[in-house]
Design the sequence.
């Protein structure tokens, strides 16, 4: 895998020997080393319990909230360690979309897009706010569907629309990387394909890291894929290569459906 | 129906389909019992409200709300001449409002903060201890609270029966209710909302202030309204802390009347006994109004 890491032409995020432990001695993620390419879609796939979501959440330091989870190793964004940055600055550069759509129920659609600013008490002029909302909703192809009901609460939308709203909310800060944790597992196939098209479009401006339980989704839209199993990064390759010519027998076993 | 486990036959007949007639009868019997007992309970409530309305409504007029309670002489004169007893319960209403307002001002900030603290540190050892203390506080008989506050406030602080003493005793009674309902309401906010706010770079105290509290707002308000409706009718602690006052009083260091105190006063005076119905009706109506309001707020949040 170190060979693949060195072929990345424009690295944006480098993970070095990352270990994450829930309790003493039980490692959920073991010595993961990977370099993510800028403006790519990198998929992390593997069977349940392999550590892919655990790995994803370490990238924006969600574990600061849970003191019983310890991490070891290094993660660097553009060569700057994420542990040296303030979490507020880090989370504006790395946004996250969760498995179940979670728009804030007390805020309108308009305010949901701006939630990152509102919750941090950042004051914007009316024109700036309108600009951010319209651009973000356009980027997620939700503008035409909601432009007449921006003041309505976000929870009145369908599941797929709510998830696109959550992506728009993450885009509002124009982050460098967007992390998505199984974003379509709670959605129907039509909504899923809309999100997938959206991600392919977004990679021109952003870098996307996507955890997916669905290997065909990884095959459809990702450029590079990581296969994880029992906490270890087994294989990390260009998606085409990993699907047609997996090097490790465990990868092959997962991809051919022998387990997972 | 027999199950074979390692050569042992276990009879698992239970209720088989062909016993459906017997089961239907049991179902009907149970349903009848449930309806019967519910009907008794509902009729009791209706009877109480009905009795109060019938006996008290003719005393309720504009004067009822704006005039202070009559003294025993006025009442006696009115009774002798067969007229309606003059006056109202304005001193009781203003007293109750002032007392409950001041006790809310004391109890709500403490209750909310302790509730938030328990929510955040719920699994630490001292959290269980704090919850136990809260339960003990809730179980203290109201007259005991009255006696203690008599000593601490009436004797040592205001040197007189006072609104302050009454409010402190009511606040102590409101506190456990607000703490519990705050913690429970906050627990009902899904973790995913907290995580969404954190992922947007929000510092944790802002997550509490701008996401957790607004989302659980209706639960918090309901808890507060229920605590208020509980202390509105408390009488024992007030007897030992505010005593009562024939006129309206706004001085926090002086005694004041309250609607339940007036009810007790009227009950004890043979000339004013008839007034107990209207004042009780008022109290009942107000408490009912608060309960219905909190239910309405809760249902609005559901939607």
Sequence:
């Amino acid at each position: 895998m170190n060979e693949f890491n060195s072929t990345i032409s424009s690295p944006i995020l480098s993970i070095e020997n990352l270990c994450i432990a829930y309790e003493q001695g039980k490692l959920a993620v073991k010595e993961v080393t990977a370099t993510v390419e800028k403006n790519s879609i990198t998929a992390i796939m593997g069977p349940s319990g392999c550590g892919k979501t655990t790995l994803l959440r370490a990238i924006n330091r969600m574990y600061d909230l849970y003191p019983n989870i310890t991490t070891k190793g290094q993660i660097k964004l553009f060569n700057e360690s994420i542990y040296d940055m303030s979490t507020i600055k880090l989370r504006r550069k790395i946004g996250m979309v969760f498995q179940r759509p979670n728009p804030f129920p007390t805020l309108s659609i308009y305010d949901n897009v701006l939630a990152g600013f509102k919750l941090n008490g950042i004051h914007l002029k009316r024109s700036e706010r309108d600009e951010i909302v319209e651009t973000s909703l356009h980027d997620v192809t939700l503008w035409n569907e909601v432009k007449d009901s921006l003041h309505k609460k976000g929870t009145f939308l369908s599941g797929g629309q709510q998830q696109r709203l959550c992506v728009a909310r993450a885009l509002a800060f124009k982050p460098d990387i967007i992390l998505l944790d199984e974003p379509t597992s709670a959605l129907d196939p039509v909504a899923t394909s809309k999100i997938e098209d959206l991600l392919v479009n977004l990679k021109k401006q952003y870098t996307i890291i996507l955890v997916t339980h669905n290997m065909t989704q990884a095959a459809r839209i990702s450029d590079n894929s990581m296969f994880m199993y029992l906490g270890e990064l087994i294989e990390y390759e260009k998606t085409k290569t990993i699907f047609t010519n997996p090097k490790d027998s465990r990868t092959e076993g997962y991809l051919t459906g022998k387990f997972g | 129906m027999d199950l074979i486990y390692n050569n042992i036959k276990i009879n698992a007949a239970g209720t088989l389909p062909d016993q459906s007639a017997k089961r239907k009868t049991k179902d009907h019997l149970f349903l009848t019992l449930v309806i019967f007992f519910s009907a008794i309970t509902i009729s009791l409530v209706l009877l109480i409200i009905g009795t109060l309305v019938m006996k008290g409504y003719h005393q309720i007029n504009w004067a009822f709300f704006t005039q202070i309670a009559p003294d025993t002489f006025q009442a006696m004169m009115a009774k002798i001449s067969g007229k309606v007893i003059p006056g109202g319960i304005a001193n009781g209403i203003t007293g109750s409002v002032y007392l409950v307002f001041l006790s809310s001002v004391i109890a709500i900030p403490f209750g909310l903060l302790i509730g938030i603290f328990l929510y955040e540190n719920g699994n630490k050892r001292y959290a269980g201890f704090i919850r136990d203390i809260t339960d003990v506080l809730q179980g203290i008989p109201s007259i005991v609270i009255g006696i203690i506050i008599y000593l601490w406030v009436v004797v040592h602080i205001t040197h007189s029966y006072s609104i302050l003493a009454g409010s402190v005793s009511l606040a102590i009674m409101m506190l456990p209710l607000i703490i519990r309902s705050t913690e429970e309401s906050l627990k009902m906010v899904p973790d995913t909302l907290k995580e969404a706010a954190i992922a947007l770079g929000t510092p944790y105290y802002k997550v509490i202030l701008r996401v957790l509290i607004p989302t659980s707002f209706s639960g918090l308000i309901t808890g507060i309204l229920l605590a208020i409706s509980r202390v509105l009718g408390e009488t024992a602690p007030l007897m030992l802390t505010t005593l009562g006052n024939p006129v309206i009083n706004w001085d926090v260091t002086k005694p004041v009347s309250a609607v339940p105190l007036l009810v007790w006063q009227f009950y004890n005076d043979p000339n004013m006994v008839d007034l107990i119905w209207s004042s009780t009706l008022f109290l009942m109506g107000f408490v009912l109004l608060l309960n219905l309001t909190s239910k309405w707020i809760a249902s609005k949040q559901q939607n």
Notes: Chain B has a mean pLDDT of 87.
